[in-house]
Amino acid sequence: MPELPEVETVRRGLAPVMEGKAILSVILNRPDLRFPLPARFADRVSGTRIEKLSRRAKFLVAELSSGDALIMHLGMSGRFTISDGTRPGDFHHEIPPNPKHDHVIFHVEGGKVVTYNDPRRFGFMELWPLQQMAQYPRLSGYGPEPLSNTFSHAWLNEALKGKSGPIKSVLLDQRVIAGLGNIYVCEALYRAGISPRRRASTVPGQRAAKLAVAINDVIREAIAAGGSSISDFKAATGELGYFQHTFSVYDREGKPCKSCGAPIRRIVQSGRSSFYCGTCQR
């Protein structure tokens, strides 16, 4: 599933095409994705202007001139592509996915067509009053963004106090840090020298200081690399991310640790694979 760096990469690809532009029309090729699309979705979105395209955790948020927020989640296989279209109904894909799975098509002011393609249909789109975003239930109670001013060593110290679960599982809790996912938690824990098995309540202090820096560094580097292209992730421009080429532990079970040479281990925690070096991470 795309994590924060991948969703931010998609946002950066879409922003020049969609931000400040009117949505001329919307074509729906089915009435639902993971959930049913909102009632009168095409009518409510068509004719509005996208004032701002932002990201919160793993969600894209388009602020519409109508006063609604168009909230979009990529799920496991969702992706956007950008193509040229001369008029509504007449478009082509410069970077074609399987057109069978083109579910939502936006014709945007300036002649661009933005297509949402999702073979597995785990993604979704919802409309929510912009002034009530703080009450949007799917983001309710989320913690700070890793690169925000709120997130710091001191904040992480407080967030981990009293948490008895493994640090890996705690970091995947979006109420602790918003947007972190399995790949980047594995990589950050490796850089900080912390075992994914370690109880979270034992991390505050020097370990938390290293971990806060590692989280920020990993997220910044991954965004700069366009995310990680595992499975079928591509940016809206069709480009592959390349952070996967720098993985230290993720998906490297049995391969030598880049620091000490010991084989990378894999365990399952909270239903997710954790990759780590048993020698370098304590």
Structural commentary:
The protein has helices at 4-18, 41-45, 153-160, 167-171, 182-192, 206-224, and strands spanning 23-28, 50-56, 59-64, 68-73, 79-87, 90-91, 102-108, 112-117, 124-129, 265-269, 272-276. The longest helix is centred in the C-terminal third of the chain and has 19 residues, at 206-224. It has 282 residues and is an alpha+beta fold. Helix 1 (4-18) packs across helix 6, helix 3 (153-160) crosses helix 6 (206-224) and helix 5 crosses helix 6. Residues 86-97 have low confidence and may be disordered. Strand 2 and strand 3 (59-64) form a beta hairpin. Helix content is 22%, strand content 23%. The protein has a 5-stranded antiparallel β-sheet. Strands 2-3-4-9 form a 4-stranded antiparallel β-sheet, with helices on one face. The protein has a two-stranded antiparallel ribbon with strand order 10-11. The two termini are 28 Å apart.
The parts where pLDDT drops under 50 for at least 5 residues are 86-97
User: What about the largest sheet?
Assistant: 5 strands, antiparallel
Order of SSEs, N→C? HEHEEEEEEEEHHHHEE
Relative strand content: 15-25%
End-to-end Cα distance, whole Å, is 28 Å
Key traits:
282 residues, alpha+beta, four-stranded antiparallel beta sheet
Q: What is this structure, in a nutshell?
A:
With 282 residues, the chain is of the alpha+beta class.
List the helices and strands and how they pair.
Layout: H1 4-18, E1 23-28, H2 41-45, E2 50-56, E3 59-64, E4 68-73, E5 79-87, E6 90-91, E7 102-108, E8 112-117, E9 124-129, H3 153-160, H4 167-171, H5 182-192, H6 206-224, E10 265-269, E11 272-276
Helix pairs in contact: 1-6, 3-6, 5-6
